[in-house]
Specification:
transferase activity, transferase, CoA_trans_fam_I, three-stranded antiparallel β-sheet, Glutaconate Coenzyme A-transferase, globular, eight-stranded mixed β-sheet
Length: 256
């Protein structure tokens, strides 16, 4: 099946208001920048986004934040996005902060059909006990907080420890960025740009990938495939100009 779509706009055309979307990337690396821009132009709003962080001001998810398109974010890191922090603290945005490894596993497990799992991460903290601020009002008062989660003691490696039950994530859509993809949706990522892209791609009902290089089926060695095409529903090939648009989040150079 040929899964190639002509443009990012066509690929995201059916994303409706209120959709949940997993987004790959870490900082500015491996971010599906042009699919995000297409959503901005398309106009979908009241979105729930699952991502490690919300990009930076003026790029990636920062574009949707600036337009107040996001209702809720599940993330592990507020990051360098000042608008993200401002909206959260002023009551404009609901934020569920999740430990980074737990977030990745919640996505991966969702894609594997596992509805929930136990992890030791967060045991004995507000992650398990509840009370983490999810939403503030305009006066800075907490109006919604995380609920307590089920816990259970397991004997692991000869020692009893408390574990926390975490529910998996299976969003409506996922947006990912790959270095290479074929027409069947098989994807290959480049080095650290892999980051959250594979678990995001595996988690969603509909996964859309922007790829820097499109090849024909059979050109990717099966051993090199990071995400099999069964998880991917639409593929968009970027232009050379789009591929070259790769920012550096923090430029550090030697003094002259």
């Amino acid at each position: 099946m040929d899964k190639v779509v002509d443009t990012p706009a066509a690929a995201v055309a059916d994303i409706a208001d209120g959709s949940s979307i997993a987004v790959g990337g870490f900082g500015v690396v491996g971010v599906p920048e042009f699919l995000i821009r297409a959503i901005k132009d398309q106009g979908a709003k009241d979105l729930e986004v699952i991502s490690n962080n919300a990009g930076v001001d003026g790029r990636g998810l920062g574009l949707l934040l600036a337009d107040h398109r996001l209702r809720r974010i599940i993330a592990s890191y507020v990051g360098e996005n000042k608008e993200f922090a401002r909206q959260y603290l002023s009551g404009e945005l609901e934020v569920e902060l999740t430990p980074q490894g737990t977030l990745a596993e919640k996505l991966r497990a969702g894609g594997a059909g596992i509805p929930a799992f136990y992890t030791i991460t967060g045991a004995g903290t507000q992650v398990a006990d509840g009370g983490m601020p999810w939403k503030y009002d305009t006066e800075g008062n907490v109006v919604k907080e995380s609920p307590a989660k089920d816990t259970r003691v397991f004997d692991t490696f000869g020692e009893e420890k408390e574990y926390v039950l975490e529910q998996s994530l299976a969003p409506d859509y996922a947006l990912v960025r790959a270095a290479v993809g074929d027409r069947h949706g098989n994807l290959v990522f480049n080095s650290s740009a892999r980051n959250f892209n594979p678990p995001a791609a595996q988690s969603a009902r509909t996964t859309i990938a922007e790829v820097e290089k499109l090849v024909e089926p059979g050109e990717i060695d099966p051993d090199d495939v990071h995400v099999p095409g069964i998880f991917v529903h639409r593929v968009v090939e970027l232009t050379a100009e789009q591929v070259a648009d790769k920012p550096i989040e923090k430029r550090t150079v030697r003094e002259a």
